[in-house]
Amino acid sequence: TTDDLRELAVFKAKQTPGWGNRNENEMYMYAHPEEYERLRFLYDINPSKMPLPFQSILNPTTISRLQLDAADRSASPTQPYTDDEVIQTLSRFEHVGFILRYSGTTDEFSLYAPMSHNWSRFDQIEAYTAFIHILRKEYWFRFKEGSADFSVLISTGDSLKMDCGCLSIPADRESAPSDANNNPTDFQQQFNSPGKAATCNRFQLSPILQFGSGFVHPDVMPTMVTMPLWPHLKCFETFRYDGKVCNKFSPVSATNRFGIYFEEEKTIYNNLIPQIIWRGSDYPFLKCRQVGGTKWSIKPMDVPGPNNPEGLVNGLTHLWDQLNPRWKAVTLSLQAELEAKNAYPNEVKSWFDFKFIIRERPGESQRWESFVKNGINIVADGYIDANEFATFKYYADFGGGGGTTWSGTHTKLALPGVLFHHETPTYDYFHEDLIPFVHYIPVSTELGDLREKYEWAEAHPDEARAISEAGTAFIKYMTSMEYWKRLFDRFFVKRLNSVIEAYRPVNSFKDEREFQTYAESQLGFPLELIGRCDGKQDCSWKVK
């Protein structure tokens, strides 16, 4: 309602510097129209069926930190930076960190990476090309022959692949890093390696354009600028150049089999199978996490106790605090299956079904087989497509290496059931428009509330169905030109422009070779020139 929007607009205004002395009427009148419109969109998706579980979601204190702080963080001006800060920041990366340079002399972009980093994936090369094309098209007035040089650090990791002496990730999305006062913690000290500075002042690093999952709490990496996921950059290029939504974010059709699947037949919500289902890979979870389980790639010999079904399940339960969230989920599923089997010997049916899928990594099949031989089936029997997923009432999207699941969230929101969304210390760019208990049911990082949330959904079918409908409505809106205009404006106009304007070309390099020599002298290790690109046609990249 208008009163709800007013309350939220005032709450947002109170958090804005310089607004603290205004009265509420002034705050409401001067609240930015875009913010008001964004809130209207978020709450008008399904206003007649707004779910109100536990307590009112319209109370501002229950709105997630992500919803309110992400916009504030992106709107704040980027601090000025130079090539020296860019080079210093790259020194803290262990993987997929790059320096993107523009030379006004040659009117070309160059991309550099440490020789030890892996950048050879074709789809990532395609993403770099798309980003440079966007820069050239959107900022033609900045990147033209004779213009000032430009440098920026970009990251294409699922999360920031920095050394843990610089990056310490809190246990969950609500916690702050333990070294908020800039003093290195014991956690960080144990990871400091020879050749790296004893301390890492995260507030003095250069901006990092992160084309992967970002951190909910801004103090984890204050200079990180969360951008769209790198696999989606080609879609933003398509939008900017061709003025249309790409196939990946258009509905599936006879001519587009790679799009988003929506169940078009009239589905009776109460007839869906009342289980939470998940399928995914056995994958590590958020390196540099201060507290919480990280154990993965487990074999039966790693599990204490006898090698029989009950012994292995009890052993995994004993390891609970060491397990990463996906292994916790599979362990919960095994527990539920045993409970159901003992209660209903002739009909095995648990309240959820979480299993791994085989990704054909070296040694993986043998590891799964060793569990199956001992009576524990932790691997799914074949692939479940969108049609079959759509027969279930509930889905989960447990986070992987970056703390999120890049494709799982939006594809499952489109289905007729309800998404149990895994809330972790990280988020993806479009999560900024999602609200817990409006578009999804939130589940904590360590899954301790999963059963409680499932029981709530079963006891409140009308509210759960409303959440399902709101989630699907949002994804349908996500396929529209209107939404893509908002996304492009948010990330490639406002957010990116702030970084471009913050760069100060203090150093003068006669050519890019001189820049590379200077950077290598500061880093103490060699850089590799991945390629040069004028941004006007397909780029030419080196192949490892």
Structure description:
The protein is of the alpha/beta class. It has helices at 2-14, 24-30, 33-44, 65-75, 83-90, 122-138, 186-189, 233-242, 309-318, 325-343, 364-373, 386-389, 408-413, 450-459, 461-478, 481-502, 512-523, and strands at residues 97-103, 108-114, 150-155, 208-210, 214-215, 224-226, 273-280, 352-356, 392-396, 418-422, 426-427, 441-443, 527-533, 540-541. The strands form 3 sheets. A 7-stranded mixed beta sheet has the order 6-4-3-1-2-13-14, sandwiched between helices. A 5-stranded parallel beta sheet has the order 8-7-9-10-12. Helix 1 (2-14) crosses helix 2 (24-30) and helix 1 (2-14) crosses helix 3 (33-44). It is globular and about 75 Å long. The protein starts with a helix and ends with a strand. Residues 27-32, 38-75 and 180-195 have low confidence and may be disordered.
SS content category: alpha/beta
Tell me about the biggest sheet? 7 strands, mixed
Number of helices: 17
Radius of gyration: 24 Å
Give the strand order of the largest sheet, numbering strands 1, 2, ... along the chain: 6-4-3-1-2-13-14
Distance between the termini: 56 Å
How big a fraction of the residues is strand?
A: 5-15%
Q: In terms of quaternary structure, what is this?
A: single chain
Give the overall shape. Answer: globular
**Chain-averaged pLDDT:** 80
Task: Please give the structural blueprint.
Elements: H1 2-14, H2 24-30, H3 33-44, H4 65-75, H5 83-90, E1 97-103, E2 108-114, H6 122-138, E3 150-155, H7 186-189, E4 208-210, E5 214-215, E6 224-226, H8 233-242, E7 273-280, H9 309-318, H10 325-343, E8 352-356, H11 364-373, H12 386-389, E9 392-396, H13 408-413, E10 418-422, E11 426-427, E12 441-443, H14 450-459, H15 461-478, H16 481-502, H17 512-523, E13 527-533, E14 540-541
Parallel strand pairs: 3-4, 4-6, 7-8, 7-9, 9-10, 10-12
Antiparallel strand pairs: 1-2, 1-3, 2-13, 5-11, 13-14
Helix pairs in contact: 1-2, 1-3, 6-8, 9-10
